[in-house]
Amino acid sequence: MTVSILHRVTGSGMATLGSLLLVWFLAALASGEAAYATFRDVFTSSDGSLNILGWVIAVGLTLSLFQHMMSGIRHLVLDTGAAFELKLNQRLARLTFLGSTVLTLAFWLYVGTK
């Protein structure tokens, strides 16, 4: 049940926050250099790296993406009529959390090396 609820929350959260950030980004680009600098300065420090808010949003959106994806894969398996046994279903539900965490860490480690 938790995985199903979290699937809906991550989908809605990514759509809402992602849309708001995209609109703000595009409006800042269209408004000129000063507006874009304001947008950029909210999420980055003076040296150009992400600040705390930038990290929280970036990692949060990444974790949401991977959690939503792993939960979607689990639902796809369930839609085939497989994995309805209680223990296997619970194991797959737990694996969605583990998989999304591992994928998020791997993504940010990869990004950090570039």
From TrEMBL:
GO CC field: membrane
Alphabetically ordered keywords of this record: Heme, Iron, Membrane, Metal-binding, Transmembrane, Transmembrane helix
Cofactor: heme
Molecular function GO labels: electron transfer activity; metal ion binding
Cofactor note: The heme is bound between the two transmembrane subunits.
Location(s) in or outside the cell: Membrane
One Pfam family from the record: Sdh_cyt
InterPro entries in UniProt: SQR/QFR_C/D, Succ_DH_cytb556, SuccDH_FuR_B_TM-su
Biological process terms in GO annotation: tricarboxylic acid cycle
Transmembrane portions of the chain: 50-71, 92-111
Residues the entry annotates as binding heme: H68
Similarity comment: family membership: Belongs to the cytochrome b560 family.
Quaternary structure (record): Part of an enzyme complex containing four subunits: a flavoprotein, an iron-sulfur protein, plus two membrane-anchoring proteins, SdhC and SdhD. The complex can form homotrimers.
NCBIfam families: succ_dehyd_cytB (TIGR02970)
Free-text function comment from the UniProt entry: Membrane-anchoring subunit of succinate dehydrogenase (SDH).
Protein name: Succinate dehydrogenase cytochrome b556 subunit
